[in-house]
Each structure stands twice: as structure tokens, then as C-alpha cells.
Fold each of these.
Amino acid sequence: MRIKQRPRVAGIPVDIDWRSFSLGAVLPLPYLAQSLPADERVLDWLPVLLGAGVLAGILLALGGLFHELGHVDAARLVGLAAESIRLGFASRVTVFPGEAPQSLGPRTTLIVVLAGPLATLAYAAVWIAMRPLVADVPLLGPVCDLLILVHVALAAFNLLPVGPSDGRLALTAANRLLRSTARPAH
Ligand SMILES: [Zn+2]
């Protein structure tokens, strides 16, 4: 029996739920259609509009991958090898062996956890830098604006200490770090 090979990015296996692409491609369509000049009929632009949707879907998924690669690279820096990256339908995660990186001490955890939102901000910064080049191009300009908005917002949401977020892991690690460095009062 042939075992399906997972694609590898930067030496790490990536499990992709391809439905996330379709979600990323379809959700921006109303916004992209609204960005067309007022005197243009949406149906006349349909092939280009769908193309812009697919492009947005791919670039949004790439942003998710970029975030997880931030965790992976930071982990490598502190000597921890991630097992794989999972890009799910509505979630994405880097899989580490066992309880890592939380088991490796608060400083390590902080570095690995914060690298994800930082990578997301770096991805947004790439599109902020690209914006002057594409701002006036129909559909491409709005796709660029969407990528900036979504990734700045995602980085902010990631840092909120609610649910199983990077923010919560970072806050827990920061607490542990403060407690371990605090000296007892005399
Ligand atoms: Zn993350």
C-alpha cells in the first residue's frame, strides 16, 4: 500500500486541510466585488473576481503557514524540533513532541510562542511594503489591503490571553518566569 507523502516546507511535514483554501477564497468575494468601480457589472468581472478570490485564499493560507514557521524556527533556535505543522479548516497549529515547548522552561516557551504572532506581523509588513505598488490595481489593491488587515488583526487576536491562544501560553510563561526570578522578601 502506498503511503501518502505529506508536503514538506522548510524541512517539516505540513498537513493541509484543503477546505481552508476554499474558505479563504470565497469569504473575501463580497468585499472584492464591492471594490469594483460603481459602473462595472460584477458578472462581467466574474472570472477575474474568482481569480482574485483564489489568490486571496492562497495568500491567506500562506500567512497561516508563515505564522507556524515562526514557531518552528524559534523552536529550532532553542534546540527544539517540531514534528509537523497542521493547517486545519479553521485552526492551525505546530505539533511538538510531548509537552514541549511548555515543559522546557518559561523563557523557551516565551520565545517559541511569541515568534508566531511576530511572524504574522512580519507577513503583514511585507504587504504594507507592497501596497504602494498595487494600491491602484483593480482587485489586487483590495487583496493587499485585506492581507494587511487580516494579519494585523490575527496577530492581535493571537496575543489575547483567551482560549488556547499564543497569548495565554505567553502569559502563563511570563508568570512562571516572574515567579522563578522573584526573590523572597527578607
Ligand atoms: Zn501561534
Amino acid sequence: MSNENFPAGYEPADVWVWEHSNGGEFAKINRPLAGATHEKQLPVGKHPFQLYSLATPNGVKITMMFEELLAAGYSDAEYDAHLIRINEGDQFGSGFVDINPNSKIPALIDKSGIEPVRVFESGSILLHLAEKFAAFIPSESHKRVEVLNWLFWQMGSAPYLGGGFGHFYSYAPIKIQYCIDRFTMEVKRQLDVLNRQLENNQFLAGDEYSIADIAVWPWYGALVMNTVYSAAEFLQAESYEHVVRWAKEIKNRPAVKRAVMVNRVWGKPEGQLAERHDASDFEFMTREKLSEIEKA
Ligand SMILES: N[C@@H](CCC(=O)N[C@@H](CS)C(=O)NCC(=O)O)C(=O)O
């Protein structure tokens, strides 16, 4: 075996032992165990859809879908968006684990049918809503399968971007060249895949905006627009010109401008809407507006 391991001399033990200190930002909130750590029921609002989430890229996918559905006139898509603070361990509360045994945002309860159903995994939520409303997914089989191709491409690819590149480039407590090189190579390859696809297509799956764009934009759009990981220069993001064109076009959609605010508790006060229970909340319930009321 190599004698260049890090830390020097490190060899994996026969049996891995969990040390609470390992992990760095984000990984440190996890445990090698599933299940609830504490009893906590989830709040329930008045709308047919109850979303439990945070404005990370995985969370934004679902608020984009709801805001796009509402903007397209599907008034039955009204939703309550409750805040799950993953840094504080809300995803390990018993109520949350009941709706997502994987303890990750986003998670949804759909109360619009005869019985409430739980929906977890962002891809499953997007597909469930697209099928329910027959929206943002084409009905013709050959077009539909192309949307599913890119939807599932995202599910398989983004963990290399977030859990691999983002973790080692931004969050890991030490910079390890081997890990950064390995995941940078993969992320640049993925960006090139998207760039080639978007060179000849307005949207990912062709000429129609779909759940494929809604799944991919919060990760790869954010990456090239430098709103995650501050890595645009490192990755030469501007060279993926078709991805940049697509990312900017989607960013300017009114529904997307609203969606990125929901369950957001960082950044500019006017861009933070911790919870969304009504369309008017975007006007009256942002952090900026609440601070004005508190001061008055
Ligand atoms: N494959 C999942 C990934 C969800 C995910 O990783 N969510 C992160 C936030 S972006 C999370 O909840 N992390 C909390 C944790 O790891 O404990 C999906 O697409 O829904």
C-alpha cells in the first residue's frame, strides 16, 4: 500500500469507527444511522400541498415547480412551505422522518387526493406533481422520455457536484488536491454534457420548458451563475456559454424569482421568505418587511 496516505501513515482500520468530529460543514450534521433523534410533529397549513424544505438547490426545485404551476394558472397547486433547518437537525425529528425516512429535504405531503400521501426525493416530487397536473411534462411518449432522461441524469449527476465537488472545494475542513481534482474533472465533464445539449436546444429536453430544467437549473444554473460554491472562475464557467444562456433565461422567469426566496433564511433580507403560506407573502412577509414591522 502507498505510504503517501493522508494523514501520513493512515490505513483504513478493519472496522470503521464513527468519530463525531469527522465530516466538516454539512457532513458533520449526519450520523451513520437512520431514524429520528427526537420527537417533533410537523406543522400543517391550510393548502392541499404541505412542503417541508429549505432553499438549497434540492429545495428550490420544488418551490420552482409550485410557483410555475401557479403562474400557469393551476390554482389547485397552492402550497404551504414550512422551514426545515437542516443545520439544526430538523430533518431528524419524528414527524419529518415519517414523511422522509431518508431525513433530507425536500419532502411533501399531498393532501389533494382521497388519502394524504407522502412524497420524498426531489425527482419523485417533480414527477408526481407533473403527472398530477399534466404540466411541465409532454404527453407524447418520445418527448416525455427525453424529459425523464434529463430528470434522472440530474438525480445521478448532482451528487458528484454537491457531495463531491462542492464538499471538497468549499466545505471540507482541509483542501485535498486528489479529491478536488477528481470531482472537478467530473463536474467539468457534466457541464460540457449540458453545454452540448443546450447548444441546439432552448431547453434541456428540447423546445419546451419542463421538469428537467426545473431539476437541473438550481444546481448547474447556480454553479455557472456563481451562486453556489464561488467556483465559477475555478471551473471557467463562462466557457460553457450555452449553459450560461439557459441559466440566465430561467433566472428571469417571474415564478423562478419567487421560488428562490421560499424557505430562504440567508442572503439579502428582501430575498428571504422563511415560510410561504400565501401568494401575498412575497410582498408582505419577507425578512425585510418583517424587520420594518419589528422596528415600527
Ligand atoms: N436525492 C435527494 C437529495 C436531498 C438532499 O441531499 N438534501 C439535503 C439538502 S440539499 C439535505 O436535506 N441534507 C440534510 C442532511 O444531509 O442531513 C433529493 O433529490 O431530494
